[in-house]
Amino acid sequence: MSTMTYADRQVDVDVDGFMTDPSQWNEEVATAIATEAGITELTDRHWLVVNFMRARYLESGSAPSIRTLGKASGVPIRELYELFPKGPAKLAAKIAGIPKPRGCI
Amino acid sequence: MNTQANGGAPQSIEKVSIIVSKGSLEGVYPALIMANGARMEGIEANLFFTFFGLDAINRARHEHVKVATVGNPGLHLATWAGGIPGVSSLVTHKLAEEMEKLDIPPIPEFVEMIAESGAGLYACKASVDLFGLTKEDFIDAIADVITVGEFYGLAAGGQIIFT
Question: Cβ separation of B117 and A78 shorter than 8 Å?
Fold first, then answer.
């Protein structure tokens, strides 16, 4: 466990840079994590995915699968990969300030 | 493990090309999970369906891929019992229920998902010719029917996984 500073806020992260305490998150932190991951601008479509991801995690305790993201987030799978080219499930989770998803699907 | 000449850090995998040669459920799923998993990590992925693996992309057959209940010791079912009509369908149905609980999609939906994720799906020309099939027998997500040589061309610079 280590800490990172995003948007002047210190947050706890795991070895892969995923936040371990979602309560330390805010939208400025999300933007800073996205920038670091190479996403220069978080569009409304990005936010739709990030907010869905966060809401699902907070309500169920685990991150949604790509399948669920594609069906229920309002963003189809093809577009998910355009928005988050380096892997939508993990990158969106990182930006959403939730722990690293452990699912294989 | 491959290491970079400069520094010795392990190289990350950039591309995988996965060959699907089996037509049983347990033969098809590992390849699909690996291809989908690759795309989830931002790794480029190709799927090459050959021989009975073609069933996974055959319009008429992809909903009917079944667990092999005969000659499958991992199932811990007596061979005579596995051969009783309906047992393969029953085991497949039970497994499908368990998979749904884990959010693992049925084969047709999974293949579609993988195509939408940007992976390239290809049918093996030799097998297509052997079984007297044409491109029209396959789902629309198939990019092309290609030769083994073309497959190697697509796979160049990446890892090849045979299943």
Answer: yes
